[in-house]
Design brief:
The chain is mainly beta. 4% of the residues lie in helices and 28% in strands. The protein is built from two helices and 20 strands.
Length: 399
């Protein structure tokens, strides 16, 4: 009986060569399986000799001068610079289909025919994003892979943008500004947002509420809500437990209360101005600190209940042009004001005793043109303050 032994030559742990084309397609010893002249490490598919298989990082900016054909010959072509698709006649951003990362800013602006940005569906990283003045763009589909934008995200000036669900993966933005988006009803699509610097919602004519931000735990910078003519509901902000910057709510014509802001303990400058229907600020009852306070031209605000937790204001306290404000209830706990105290043109203000507890006023005291406030009562407030560091002006009040 004979035993036939067959011994394979070569190294015992050498991997099987599954790519027989590698030898014939080698370039100076560098693997190139498909022989297309692109080394394997720079080839998206080294088994396909198609010319659109190269990988490259382009150093420089991409703009109208070099946008056309930018992805021709590349399956991945990242950009070490800024990308601006601006002022084009394009309807589709096919020329950016290969871009996965942009080290700088991406700007999509002033494109009258652009109605589709799905060419950006491979984009996963960008330092800043601006989409503005694209009158045919109704959706941001194509931006689904963005999870973090360390700089500014700005969506500006559109009468047709109704859908921002493409941003549903966005968890962090350095700042987020939505301005003049006159067809956007709310913020549905931002449900993953967990961290943001400044948040600005300005002049969004159709926005009725801020639903979509229901999971946002806080704001690292300032919150500004202004000139949103239809905004009447802030309840989705009820998850906010910190606001590290200013709170500015101005000219929100249908806003009647600040429900949703109950859990914010401190703000920088507190500005509530020009809100014609606002009558209830009791949702601010959780506030224990504000760097300054400014209430101006709130037509039907009758009191300041909700501010009773504030005992010191390092900056100015201004109450100006609040024609329905009858007294200063809510300010009873304030003992020190580091700036000026200004009470002016509050037509129905007749009682200022809530401020009798102020021991120190470092700046000026101005009590001016309050038609129902007796001059004697204004002077009594002056006398109740132990220390006034600036000048005192009492004028134009009731005799």
């Amino acid at each position: 009986m004979y035993l036939l032994l067959i011994v394979a030559c070569g190294q015992p742990n050498e991997p099987k060569d599954t790519d027989p084309a590698v030898d014939s397609g080698a370039i100076d010893g560098v693997r190139d399986a498909d022989g297309d002249g692109i080394a394997q490490e720079n080839d998206c598919n080294d088994h396909n000799p198609s010319p659109a298989t190269a990988v490259e990082t382009y150093a420089g900016d991409v703009n109208a001068e070099n946008l056309a054909g930018f992805c021709d010959g590349y399956c991945v072509r990242n950009v070490d610079g800024d990308v601006a698709a601006s002022g084009t006649t394009l309807s589709y951003l096919y020329d950016l289909r290969c871009v996965q990362t942009i080290s700088g800013a991406l700007t999509i602006a002033n494109n009258d025919a652009l109605d589709d940005i799905t060419g950006l569906s491979g984009l996963s990283a960008v330092s800043a994003l601006t989409v503005e003045h694209n009158p045919a763009l109704t959706t941001l589909a194509g931006l689904e892979n963005l999870t973090a934008v360390p700089g500014a995200v700005t969506l500006y000036n559109s009468d047709v943008l109704t859908d921002i669900h493409a941003l549903s993966g966005l968890r962090f933005a350095g700042t987020l500004t939505l301005e003049r988006l006159n067809a956007l009803p709310n913020l549905e699509g931002l449900s993953a947002l967990a961290s943001v610097g400044d948040l600005k919602l300005l002049s969004n004519g159709a926005m009725t509420d801020v639903s979509g931000l229901d999971s946002l735990p806080g704001i690292d910078g300032s919150l500004e809500l202004g000139d949103n003519a239809s905004l009447h509901d802030l309840s989705a902000f009820s998850t906010l437990t910190y606001l590290n910057g200013d709170l500015n709510i101005h000219r929100s014509g249908k806003l009647r209360a600040l429900t949703g802001l109950e859990h914010i303990p401190a703000v920088g400058a507190l500005t509530i101005s020009g809100n014609d229907r606002l009558y209830d600020i009791s949702a601010l009852a959780g506030l224990t600190a504000a760097a300054s306070m400014n209430f101006e031209y709130n037509k039907i605000l009758v009191d300041l209940d909700g501010l009773s937790g504030i005992t010191e204001v390092p900056g100015d306290v201004t109450l100006y042009g609040n024609v329905s404000l009858k007294d200063l209830g809510g300010l009873d706990g304030v003992t020190r004001i580091g700036g000026d105290l200004r009470l002016e043109q509050n037509g129905r203000l007749a009682d200022v005793r809530a401020l009798y507890g102020v021991a120190t006023l470092s700046g000026n005291l101005d009590i001016l043109d309050n038609a129902e406030l007796l001059t004697a009562d204004a002077e009594a407030l002056r006398d109740a303050i132990d220390s006034i560091g600036g000048t005192v002006t009492i004028s134009g009040n009731a005799p």
